[in-house]
TrEMBL record:
It comes from the Bacteria. PROSITE patterns: ADH_SHORT. This is Glucose 1-dehydrogenase. Its EC number is 1.1.1.47. One of its GO terms (molecular function) is glucose 1-dehydrogenase [NAD(P)+] activity. Keywords: Oxidoreductase. Transmembrane segments: none annotated. NCBIfam families: PRK07231.1. Belongs to the short-chain dehydrogenases/reductases (SDR) family. It comes from Kribbella jiaozuonensis. It is an enzyme of class 1 (oxidoreductase).
Length: 247
């Protein structure tokens, strides 16, 4: 129960990677805020699962690609728990197998709104509101470091958060706040890999991984829980790559 008494806010936590991270933090004793955009049913399932672990939990519907949604999310967190100690900027959108030549302006605007603008303002608000000695974690992608066919737009949209985290680590360090980025490879059972139609693509990626498997949501959740803990107090401004050696 290393996070007992802490409050953790995880964006995009009604399913997939965000869900796994939130429940791992709850299992470590943190009170949690489930954030979702549209799927209230999925959010309620996560809410029940978190409460079954013996912690307090609320859910907040907010589009975190919009600044007013982000502010509403933080307002609800502080109103309920008094402060926020852990922020995980997880919400994002995947778009792969799209050559640069085929990307539309609409594709570009959507991915940069969700994957770049959203996390930027989630972190801006964290810088304003997180408690001293808090923990900020961003979720990037190894497509930012491992060039692959068809991920030009997606990888580019995920680059900014890792850089911003390093700058924010400098700015917030005097308050004892750490800021780190997890850089996962492809995650089995999350994102596009919840669709069996992408099995062939998944197998092609597995062939690129030295350990012979894709990551799981639990792999990444474990890293997030460590970075959120007191044991990681000296780790900040880092990008933790978890891709089975693809990089």
């Amino acid at each position: 129960m290393t996070l007992k008494g802490k409050t953790a806010l995880v964006t995009g936590s009604s399913k997939g990677l965000g869900r796994a991270i939130l429940l791992r933090l709850a299992a470590q004793g943190a009170n949690v805020v489930v954030n979702y955009s549209r799927d209230e049913s999925a959010a309620n399932e996560v809410l029940d699962a978190a409460r079954s672990l013996g912690v307090q939990a609320i859910s907040v519907a907010a589009d975190v690609s919009q600044v007013d949604g982000i502010q509403r999310l933080y307002d609800a967190t502080v109103d309920e728990f008094g402060q926020v100690d852990i922020v995980v900027a997880n919400a994002g959108m995947e778009k792969v197998n799209v050559p640069v030549a085929d990307v539309t302006e609409e594709d570009f605007d959507l991915l940069f709104r969700v994957n770049t603008k959203g996390p930027y303002f989630v972190l801006r608000e964290a810088a304003r509101r997180i408690a001293d000695n808090g923990r900020i974690i961003t979720i990037s992608s190894n497509t930012t470091t491992v060039p692959q066919l068809g991920v030009g737009l997606y990888g580019t949209s995920k680059v900014a958060t890792g850089y911003l985290a390093r700058v924010l680590a400098l700015e917030l360090g005097p308050r004892g706040i750490t800021v780190n980025t997890i850089v996962p490879g492809p995650i089995d059972g999350a994102g596009i890999f919840t669709d069996p139609a992408n099995d062939e693509y998944k197998q092609s990626l597995i062939a690129m991984v030295p350990i012979g498997r894709l990551g799981t949501t639990e792999d990444v959740a474990g890293i997030a829980a460590f970075l959120a803990s007191d044991q990681a107090g000296l780790i900040t401004g880092q990008q933790i790559v978890a891709d089975g050696g693809m990089h």
